[in-house]
Task: structure prediction
Amino acid sequence: MKLKIVPLDPSIHDRGAFSCGHDGVDRYLKSTAAQAAQYFKAATFVLLGLDAPQRILGFFTLVPHAYRDGELDQTTARALKVHKLQQIPMIMLGQLGVVVDLKGRGLGKMLLWEALSRAYAAATEIGGVAVITDPIDNEAASFYARYSFETLHKEPFHRMILPMKTIKTALPEHTTETQASR
Ligand SMILES: CC(C)(COP(=O)(O)OP(=O)(O)OC[C@H]1O[C@@H](n2cnc3c(N)ncnc32)[C@H](O)[C@@H]1OP(=O)(O)O)[C@@H](O)C(=O)NCCC(=O)NCCS
Result:
């Protein structure tokens, strides 16, 4: 199956038919993603098959995020070399989902690396010391942990982090891997 990942276009892509099995993630795509993109609040990208380009097979959302000085624990701040910054720029991977009937075939991994690649490109233009994400449950947290995301804190919500330096190092290998599998 030939695949592509493009920005969400609500006039073409069928959001109503998408289900990744998690209501909150599905609802975001159906009700919020298009308006959020229209007003530049967040950017959503969808995975499509070239043979049925209106059917969304998966998606992810990126949004800028800033920690203020003191909000980040000292150990993390020092590791990221941001302990003297008042505003710490990050990029949040806000949503990620793969349609239920195609789970387990590597599409989640493909979407994640595309998201990390786009986050890295954005960071080289305007800054961004890490990608953060709030996994919706323990399974999602285990998925992210496979890709070296570490738990930043569990309260008041579970948040995980992957430094941009780590992404920079890992990206070339995964870009080659993805190109080889297409
Ligand atoms: C999490 C999700 C995106 C994974 O997508 P997927 O296409 O099934 O995952 P892949 O087939 O690409 O799997 C990639 C790797 O992650 C592993 N993996 C997949 N789901 C996992 C899970 N829930 N826990 C741990 N590892 C998982 C796979 O075994 C695979 O490992 P491998 O490369 O060593 O074989 C998908 O299950 C989903 O949409 N879940 C519901 C929404 C959700 O939880 N989103 C994430 C948080 S917002």
Observations:
- Residues 20-22, 25, 95-98, 103-109, 135-136, 139-140, 142-143, 146 surround coenzyme A (CB under 6 Å).
- The CA atoms of residues 48 and 56 lie 5 Å apart.
- The longest strand covers residues 52-68.
